[in-house]
Amino acid sequence: MSGGADPRAPRAAVAKGWAVTLVVAVMVGLAGAGLVTRAMDSDASGSGDTVGAAPADVVADGGEAEAVDGQDAIDLYAPGMVEALFERLGAEGVEGYLNVVVRPDRASFEVQTAPGARQYDEIAFNDGELGEPVPGGEIAESDELEDEVFAASDIAEGVVAAVTSQAADVAGLQGRQVSHVVIARDSSHRGVVTVTVHLESDDYGSSATLTWDGTGRHLLRDGS
After folding, report:
1. Which end of the chain, C or N, has fewer beta carbons within 10 A?
2. The pTM is what?
């Protein structure tokens, strides 16, 4: 993606009022036995497990984050959290995404300035607040929009929470924490929208990266 002109008139109204605070109400016990379900995919592509999860109750219409043990706590890997951010961005007019990076307490979004536009803005979620969109760049003319842009609806509810909770076990690195999650279209997996989980490195720099599609199906390194 290269820099370029940024016709921002279609998003003039959207750029106002972005400083909002996410209200979080995460239900206790969702990480129990009912949180993650697996079903072996039966098609002949060689794909792996499918995961699913029930989202928690999350309100995204402004206000203070719920205090937990006397502290404001945000865990974006908790059920319903990423969905709440997508919902809030959708309410502000965002429809197309190019890249989303989610960390435990913050996230960044590359979003189309308007449907069909080649320009994109960058929006950050930090300290419980969504910032205002800032110019990000332009999608190269050689790239087809449908190969770059995805919608929030391409990620099934509960998938991010489910895959982050089981990534270390799938990698055989029990107890390893998740560093960050990347959501984007992946050309190595035939352009499908993928959720890629990056585990933290150990003291020797060894880590692991695992990828699922938007439905929660584990994808193998050969693209299947």
Report:
1. C
2. 0.72
